[in-house]
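Take a sample.
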Amino acid sequence: MPDALKMSGEDVAKAQFQANEVNAKLKAKKGKLPSELDKDSFLKLLVAELRHQDPTQPMNDREFISQMAQFSSLEQMSNMNQSIEKLVLRSQSSDAFSLIGKEVEAVDFASQQIVRGLVSGVVYRQDGVKVIIGSAEVSLNDIHAVY
């Protein structure tokens, strides 16, 4: 094993403690652990790596540049994902507003009934854009006919 990768028992214990602490906070915050690193976690790992590196064997420039490029790519993908989510919401909103005043037929999963009627409005809920048909709120995906 290269010398640059060796850590003392104390350093390993500290790193394990920090990882467990972060995992516990994430689990408490979200209910489950994420399967992929987000940009903040990636940056924390990079800082921890820099903090605990052997001063006589510092990270070489290529490794550092590679990790910074990965961080930059992660940031750009995260921003692109947010932009796509906004685009999808706008598209769904446009679709929903275009249905106002039209007669539609859909499945209302709350009442387990098929509802048919005029769309009178649009609402935004945590699980997406919904249209109002009578007293029912129906997801756009649950509409199966427009008359």
Q: What stands out?
A: The mean pLDDT is 80. The longest strand covers residues 113-125.
